[in-house]
Amino acid sequence: MSWTWSRTLFSKVIAGLLAIVDSINGKANDLFAAACACVSPTVDNWLEPSKSTRTKLKALEREIGSGSLLIRHEKDSEAEEFDHLFKTVWTVKELADLRDQLMQSGLLENLQKHVTLKPEHASAISARISSLMSSEETFEQAGNFIARLQKRFDSDTPLRIRIEVLNAEEDLHRHSGRFDQAILACRQRSEFENDPAIACYERRLQSDNRLAAALFDGHSFDEAVCILTPWMKHFEDCPQICLPETRAIVMNTLARCCVPLNDNRWENLFQRSLVLQKATETTSASRTMNYLIHGYLKTNRLTEAKELLAGTNEQSNDAYLIWLRADYERRVGGTCSNIDRFIHSIPWQNHVYGLILQALARQLDRSLESRLELLQDAKRSFEFGIEGSSTNIKHLLAQVCEIGIYFLENDIDLMTSTVGLVKVMLNQTGLSSASAWYGATLSALETSPTWRNVNNLFERVPHF
User: Fold this and answer.
1) What is the pLDDT of residues 109-124, one digit of tens each?
2) CA dihedral defined by 182, 186, 189, 193, rounded to 10 degrees?
3) 253 vs 225: CA distance, rounded Å
4) 85: which of 42, 142, 212, 402 lies 20 to 30 Å off by Cα?
């Protein structure tokens, strides 16, 4: 069965995709005998109705009478009028819906058969992982991609690819708030990397840094500092022990862990990291600058924070900078109303959206209604993607917001009940450090439910 006009689809991009699927199935599936796709891809994997749908479907009806498969947008009423012409109709709104339909029809089985991963696949795998990990909205896709790669691991899988995928899995756990799973994955990978045949300082350093970053989320700051501090002596004795970019990353992680411990090394570490990044990769320097500003805010060094913020672009839509400006204004007693117009460009699923809103909600000059709405939206943002993960750090952030909400609603009973739930959550395995970190602050809030104690709880959160 050849791909003739009757097998052509109206959307060229989708046509190309399904032509590949048809080809790998031997062009033998009657579903594609006379298939029409009336959707086109847009940004972020969404689909939209194609143009001139009615004209094209009328042409199909005139030329061949009926079709085998219609793929249309679920809200395309124009295409829906022609459903009766097709044996099968798939309604979709994003590429994932089309993928699911293809999988349910067994049309992707040949694609999912085992293919040995080769060195030449490494760059493409790395680029795809990097793309999917760039936004919290695509974390689920990243997880699925990583899982598919791991199923293809065998004795011939190149070491570079194996480590790249294992690192990505750990990073995904951590960026999704699953710090306990990130710690477990890191320690399992460390056993693998300790094999003398493949061990090297660069990989071991990156592994220790990932573990320390996960420990930060678990509030095990002391342990993280103990892991990374010995590397500072190695850097002094032999800077060539690793890439300068890696040294900068490690200094950042150590500095972030030093801030909540009031370890004064954090400022110098960030500044040294900036020197390295300005010489090697200037695009990373902005993140380090944000870390430095956050350190000044957390230690109440508002003059230094103000000076650094003054050197940034006030019109920037950098989500982290917007958050830091909001927190600075909160700390000096302002309302920062000019920031409100920027936040709508940030996806609500991005946890930084929640960080911005909780900072705005704690600006005391705002109306009670505004503060409540901001905290409720912040809570919703932190709750994105944490279903079924009771130890997820974002779950804690959401519950802290909930405590603030109940206080502002003057429902002290519900607030106290939520404090109790937080204590129960922190008593879970793997959260002993977090339990110790918040214990006294939570107890003070139960004893004296004042805004000062509520705000002290927010201040205690290292991520805020």
Assistant:
1) 877 666 788 888 888 8
2) 150
3) 9
4) 42
